[in-house]
Specification:
CATH topology of the largest domain: Rossmann fold
Oligomer: single chain
Strand order of the largest sheet: 6-2-1-7-8-10-9
Number of domains: 2
Order of helices and strands: HHHHHEHEHEHHEEHEEHEEE
Radius of gyration: 20 Å
CATH superfamily of the largest domain: Vaccinia Virus protein VP39
Helix content: 25-40%
């Protein structure tokens, strides 16, 4: 790949998706875009770039999707789901005891493993959530991965990565060599295409935002701007969950780390002590551990 073509692709990706590639990532572009070029009947990256410059918006969108589709799997990293069960949900259930409504946003929902993992966690709570309205929104830049998420169909390899066998048997139906998540779990998750670089205030305010393993691809300024918008999209006593390699420290003061909970943050000014805003004497609901986690 010649340097001008690489710089052109870097600029397109930065402008349209926020993906900030360093000067030595030619191998990544070639591995992601050569298959796309050949699928489009083009000989190489140079031909792909030439067609993009000719104004093929459909091809430009395909390039962005190919470069921003990231790996995911069920209950990835485990720790965030421990936080969900042990810290986030007890706090949220007590704070929302009167209105009985929980809104959770997966800001990089990808092919659905994360939002469905959250849905299974909530489903396993059973009677503790009886009468509650649960809203889980999964968004992603890529419409292609959102369609896969909506279908909820996964290969044997995909369900073996992180998903406890008890939950596979309980919440999935086998279809030949594939597995489809049951309608009751799929029905808990809504999907919407969204670019985090753009305004997302129309989504409303959430109790919990999962924004994991996506901000690592952005530069510092872009991260700071997204954190500022995320702060407006989470309740004052809500939670932000980041990936293991992500942090707000040194980037923004709108969020602060939750004590002794890696990857968990609260809006600055929110109290970390359990029970903020609860009726006097309210007790934390006892949440059962998700099988195998």
């Amino acid at each position: 790949m010649n340097p001008p073509d690489y710089e052109y692709l870097r600029k397109v990706l930065k402008d349209l998706s926020g993906l900030d590639l360093s000067a030595d990532k030619q191998y990544l572009i070639e591995s992601r875009l050569l298959p796309l070029a050949r699928k489009s009947g083009l000989s190489d990256i140079a031909a792909l770039v030439q067609k993009m410059k000719g104004g093929s918006s459909a091809l430009i969108n395909q390039v962005v999707e190919a470069m921003t589709t990231n790996e995911t799997f069920f209950f990835r990293d485990k720790v965030p789901f421990d936080h969900l069960r042990d810290t986030i949900l007890p706090n949220v259930l007590r704070a929302r005891a009167l209105r009985k409504n929980i809104r959770i946003w997966c800001a990089a929902g990808s092919t659905g493993q994360e939002p469905y993992s959250i849905a299974m966690c909530l489903k396993e709570m059973g009677a503790a959530l009886a009468g509650w309205r649960i809203e889980i929104l999964a968004t992603d830049l890529s419409q292609e991965v959102l369609e896969k998420s909506k279908a909820g169909i996964y290969s044997q390899f995909e369900v073996q990565r992180g998903l406890p066998i008890q939950l596979l048997v309980k919440h999935f139906k086998q279809i030949g060599e594939l597995w489809q998540i049951n309608p009751d779990i799929r029905g808990m998750v809504q999907h919407r295409q969204l670019n985090l670089l753009h305004d997302f205030s129309q989504l409303g305010v959430f109790d919990v935002i999962f924004c994991r393993n996506v901000l690592i691809y952005f530069d510092q300024d872009t991260k700071s701007k997204i954190f500022a918008r995320l702060a407006k999209g989470v309740e004052a006593d809500g939670f932000l969950v980041l990936g293991a390699a992500e942090t707000v420290v040194g980037l923004t003061e709108v969020f602060k780390p939750f004590p002794d909970r890696r990857g968990l943050y609260r809006p600055n000014g929110a109290q970390s002590a359990p029970g903020k805003g609860l009726p006097a004497g309210a007790a934390a609901p006892k949440l059962a551990a998700v099988a195998g986690l």
